[in-house]
Amino acid sequence: MKKNSRKMLIGVLLVAAGVAFLLYRGIATTSTYYLTVAELTGEVTGPPISDQDYVRVGGEVVEGSIDYDQKALILRFAIRDQEGSDGTLKVRYDGPRPDAFAPDIEVLAEGTYARAEGVFRAQNLLVKCPSKYESKQEQ
To answer: Which of 52, 33, 42 is nearest to 114 (CA)?
Structure first.
């Protein structure tokens, strides 16, 4: 094998290894479980989740559970599953309250679950737009 061919082969192998590493890291850091409130709290069987696992949990905001400290930017509330489960999950989000945030609105919280405290610590909070923004269907 010629010297130039070896250098080219080594270069291609290094680039391929770099791309493979970046793909692995990208998939490992963006793959998160999506759970219901019942799965996260253990009301129904779901995947085993530790306190360090980053997960997504979705549900409806429970009316009367919203507590927002505007000075400290701490939002506390509870969510419940949309289908049939009676259990609720306490959520704490450190950040500004989203504009569309209200009781009975669907939210998606991303973060970690402190099982001992019974609190989900959300790092991201996404709010589904209320139905008043959806187009009216023709009758």
So the answer is: 52
